Amino acid sequence: MKSILVIDDEPGIRNTVKDILEDEKYTVFLAEDAIIGLEILKKESIDLIILDVWLPRKGGIEMLKEIRENWPGLETIVISGHATIDMAITAIKLGAFDFIEKPLSIEKILTSVRNALQVKELRHENARLKHELFEQDEILGSSQAMQEIKKLITQAAESNARVLITGENGTGKELVARHIHIQSERRNGPFVAVNCAAIPENLIESELFGHEKGAFTDAIARRKGKFEIANTGTIFLDEIGDMSLQAQAKVLRVIQDMRFERVGGEQSIETDVRIIAATNKNLEEEIAQGRFREDLFYRLNVIPIHLPPLRERDNDIAELAVHFLNKFCNGKKTLTNDALEFLKTYSWPGNIRELRNIIERIAVLSAETKLSKTTIEPFLYTTSTPYNTTQTVGQNSSNSQEIDGLFNLSINDAKETFERMYLIHNLRKTDYNITKTAEAIGIYPSNLHAKIKKFKIEAGK
């Protein structure tokens, strides 16, 4: 839950803003002046500040300078009832995210708060990527096939051309897209990933292009879409082969004109964004079946990058397994040679994602420090059972062993691990049909969507 500090000397303003934000499930701290606000900042983890300009003891502009010096990553929305243009310019130059004049409207406050928090999250994500991504380069492997992929990534990063990444589920398509972004001139802009397969068809346009207040029943405020948020950066359209023809037409228009309209809006919004798309489908076959637009395919397929499945590059398996084990165990456990050779004999239907999952599970649940073939074999075939949609958890000894492993976790981790297993099992039974799955397990589809997002469950993965 995000925490917001409201600093204003008027009790009516403080309490009104507090009520608005708490209705949206934010945690709110209140301060009547800057001195009290600074004390709260030193004690609490604050995600956003709403700051009045005119304050006793220490003014808002002076406070803004102190925030920039001591909390440089903290977004601030400045409010005022007697603002001048010069004051607004000064606030923005000092790093304020937005400047809002009183009287405050619910829509203006909520829109500014959502946008500020979203920008903060994107900034943190990009900082994390810059810090970690190149350290993770070995995840791509060192086989000849992956060396060629690395060259293509470098070449793609040097241009602004659109990229189409193809490959089976779990081969690392998003990681490749992130590498391209971080190595490109757009590295300081946002990287916005969109899983087209996970968004209901009736919400895809709102998700991509945003909406105006009142555009549909739940549109209580204006909302920016992913194309608008990704401006000056990169948008990654994952599983674009699952997008409806209607949405494909809208994406094609953005590519052609670099502009779009929010749902329910008439204003044409320009965007400067690089598009990287990915799919696990054969789009040429989809075109032949009338499920994918040929003109969009050629627009996207400027730089094609195909990621081979893990079973076709078994020389990478040992390298990847060792990397993941070191990551999860900090070098406290090792894989024996017979274990590494055994890993090469498995077909890896879930590719790198499945290998990572298995190694993480072994790292958490195995008490041994030297992991042999005998140690890892039960774990490997346990994790393969969820691909069989007719089997239920606990139906055989391997699954029983997996359930037994939950007893080694904290109660919260055990609950979350089981809930994720339970959801994946039931989703696979309905071929990831949200409505049918929700009905089968007795929850609303909207709640199921929220859980899918929470546990990062992706269709077919």
Provide structural commentary.
The chain is α/β, with parallel strands linked by helices. The chain folds into four domains: 3-126, Response regulator (Rossmann fold), CATH 3.40.50; 141-308, Rossmann fold (3-Layer(aba) Sandwich); 312-387, Orthogonal Bundle (Helicase, Ruva Protein, domain 3); 407-461, Homeodomain-like (Arc Repressor Mutant, subunit A), CATH 1.10.10. Helix content is 49%, strand content 14%. It has helices at 11-23, 34-43, 60-70, 85-93, 106-132, 144-157, 173-183, 204-209, 226-229, 245-257, 283-288, 294-300, 315-329, 337-344, 351-365, 373-384, 397-405, 411-429, 434-441, 445-454, and strands at residues 3-7, 27-31, 48-52, 75-80, 98-101, 163-167, 191-195, 210-211, 223-224, 234-238, 259-260, 269-270, 274-279, 303-307, 334-335, 370-371. The strands form five sheets. It has a five-stranded parallel sheet with strand order 2-1-3-4-5, sandwiched between helices. A five-stranded parallel sheet has the order 7-10-13-6-14. The chain has a two-stranded antiparallel ribbon with strand order 8-9. Strand 11 (259-260) and strand 12 form a beta hairpin. The longest helix is centred in the N-terminal third of the chain and has 27 residues, at 106-132. It starts with a strand and ends in a 7-residue tail after the last helix. Residues 383-401 have low confidence and may be disordered.
